[in-house]
C-alpha cells in the first residue's frame, strides 16, 4: 500500500514514518507534505492508496487547509481513503470530517496506540474513530443524533466569519436574507455556539478562514 503523509511538524512526520515501519513491506511512504499546497502537489504527482494527513496545517492559499482541503481532496480523488490526525476534539468538527468522506480520525495524543489499528480498519473497508473522540460524541449526543451542518450552512459560516453581513451573503449566494438568517441560526444551534465570536473561532479551527 502506497501512502502519502502530511503534517506541518517535522517531528510528527518522523513519528509517522516510525509507526508505519511496524507494517514492514506492506506500506510504503511515497510522498510527504508540510502544508496544503504541497499535499495537493504530491497527490497530483504520485499515485497512492492512502492519505494520512494533519487537519490543521499552514494555508498559503484559501481552501488549502482544514475541512475545505478535505472536501477538495475527496472531490478530486473520490476513491482515496483519508485518515486524519488531529489534536482537535470538537464533536461537531469530527462529524463534519466524517460527512465529507474521511474514513478515519485519530487523536494525535493516541497516535502510537491507534494508528496501525485505524489503518487495519480502513484496509478492511471499514471506518475508524479515535476512542476518546467516540466517547466525547456519545457523551454529548447520547441519543445518537449528532448534528452535522450542511454544505450550505458551511458556506454561510465561512462568509460570516470573513466579516460579511447576512445581506451581503444573500446577494453573493443568490438566496433570500430570511434563508441566510435561518441557516446561520441552524448552524449555531447544531454546533452549540452562542455568539458570533464563537462562530469565528469555530470557522478558524476547521480551516474555513
Task: Give me a quick take on this structure.
The chain is α/β, with parallel strands linked by helices and 209 residues long.
What features would you describe in this structure?
The chain is elongated. The protein folds into two domains: 2-140, 3-Layer(aba) Sandwich (Rossmann fold); 151-206, Arc Repressor Mutant, subunit A (Orthogonal Bundle), CATH 1.10.10. Helix 3 links the parallel strand 3 (50-54) and strand 4 (82-86). It is built from ten helices and six strands. By secondary structure, the protein is an alpha/beta fold. 52% of the residues lie in helices and 13% in strands.
Give the helix/strand layout.
Elements: E1 2-6, H1 10-20, E2 28-33, H2 36-45, E3 50-54, H3 66-76, E4 82-86, H4 91-99, E5 104-107, H5 111-123, E6 128-129, H6 131-140, H7 151-161, H8 166-173, H9 177-191, H10 196-205
Give the percentage of residues in beta strands. Answer: 5-15%
What's the total helix number?
10
Secondary structure: number of strands: 6
Q: How many domains, as an integer?
A: 2
CATH topology type of the largest domain: Rossmann fold
**At the fourth CATH level, what is the homologous superfamily of the largest domain?**
Response regulator
> What are the secondary-structure elements, in order, as H or E?
EHEHEHEHEHEHHHHH
